[in-house]
Amino acid sequence: MFQMAPVIIGAQGQRAAFRVQHQGGPPAQGRAKDQRHAGVAAFLGKEDPHLVQLQGGEGLSDLLSSEGIQSDVSSWGDFRSIDAQSVGTLPLRVNLLNLVQSEITGLDAIQHDHRQLISRGSSGQFNILTPDCGRANTEPLKSRCQSQEGGMSGLGEQKAQQATEQLQDGELWLFLTQEGSDPSVPLVFGTNSVGKAAFMLHGSGPKALVSRIDAGHFEQHAAFLETRSYSTSFETDLIDWLRELSPHTVLLNFSEDDIRCDGLTHGQYLAVERLLGEALPQARIASSEAQLSRIRAIKTPEELRRLQQAIDRTITFYDRLLPTLHAGQTERQIQARMNTLAAELGTTPDLGDFGGPLVLINRVGMSHRAPTDTAIEPGDLLILDTALETEGYYSDIARTIYFLKDGEHEPPEREQRVFQAIYGAIDAAFAALKPGVPGYQVDAAARQHLLDRGYPEIQHSTGHQIGRHVHDGGAVLGPLWDGKRRAPRLQADEGMVFTLEPTVLMSPDPSMIVEENVVVTGDGARYLSQRQQHLWTAR
């Protein structure tokens, strides 16, 4: 019997989708020429050549011919009639072993339910072999491994799919941007535009309306099912497209509470309100805050990989920094050393939008401030707080160091009590952090732990989310001080990544910040950072 399985082949940034027929039972493990072709080799029932029938879209014939692959064209037809939502029915017979042995780069192969038609909009579970991970993996199409180029496009596909799943029937999510004006665009789509652009999420798939100068890039971008370009009238083309899609609700990126969800400028809001009044007078405008904050918060496996790499790099950073610290160094000198060390690790130390890194001698004052020329003296506490960026994602980890006086071999009891109180407060927050628990309850656990031991109330939230920004918006582990903030009322959910940083700030008395990074799991939380187990010392 014939079994159907789709294959995706990419060459030099191009993609062609086709279906494969082969005789025999289910595909067995075959041996490829090298790891790049492992995916296609998985479709070989034997090592012997198989004749297969490829049904493909535009460019398939040229792609195969350019690699010297012999094919028997039965009925090639007009490829320009094939749209992005279907594979088409154009048959082409090739020797699959020759295909495996070709030098086509960037091969992906997917074994999928043969009853479904492969397309850029398909989803579901399937086995995948990719050239850059070289092993089988079971996960949605949009979550497949990143390309060897390491760009954001694969992640953009994942996040665009994740965002689309947030939509209800009849809803359209409209992103308006120009020169990178909306920070949510690279998060959701993994790219940005130079000219004025509209990106739309809709039940029929992600769409892009871009200027002709940007069109070439977006036509090849895997996150978009359909791309159109305009030459003179952006508004006219957008109105026409909105009328075609005819949603009853249009979500826009504005928010009164969360700056990460407030990417639409006031002027753009006025413009789109006018356009929608003309194109869809019956449509309702609504904020995308709930959807966008969730997309930002729930990290995909690829996002978690990047965050873990940034966190691991930060732990290495501190491990290398600690032996170089000594009394007599100034805050400014230590920051310079941190910059040098980070460069050696291939990154930069900062707090993202907040600058940094923070280098704070306790007796000089505890705040987000620039370093001074004050030198460390024996008996000082030094607080270091930094974030390292990896592939667009940030860690955020703080450490406290005590500088021993002559004759001391460990910190004084008072300083150690403060550290143990903070350590216990982190334990309390960690134990409370579970899916379904609102952020203010997690904050209360840490806050009460410190109050019960006689320390002053924490002057900030116990924790915030990290991701594309050091402070990544959405749910926070914070108090209900004004009774109006939405963020502390939001519930933790699996895949969110938080800092835990309950602090004791009593300058000039002992002040300490220890900050860890954790991910929410199905039944609790898990540390991503290696914890500071004791008050570090230096001389």
UniProtKB/TrEMBL annotation:
Pfam families with a match to the protein in the record: Peptidase_M24
Stretches assigned to coiled coil: none
UniProt xrefs under PANTHER family: AMINOPEPTIDASE (PTHR46112), CYTOPLASMIC PEPTIDASE PEPQ-RELATED (PTHR46112:SF8)
Alphabetized SUPFAM superfamilies for the sequence: Creatinase/aminopeptidase
Gene Ontology molecular-function annotations: aminopeptidase activity; metalloexopeptidase activity
Domain Peptidase M24, residue spans: 306-521
Claim: Electron transport is one of the keywords in the record: no
Organism encoding this protein: Deinococcus radiopugnans ATCC 19172
Keywords recorded for this protein, A-Z: Aminopeptidase, Hydrolase, Protease
Protein name: Aminopeptidase P family protein
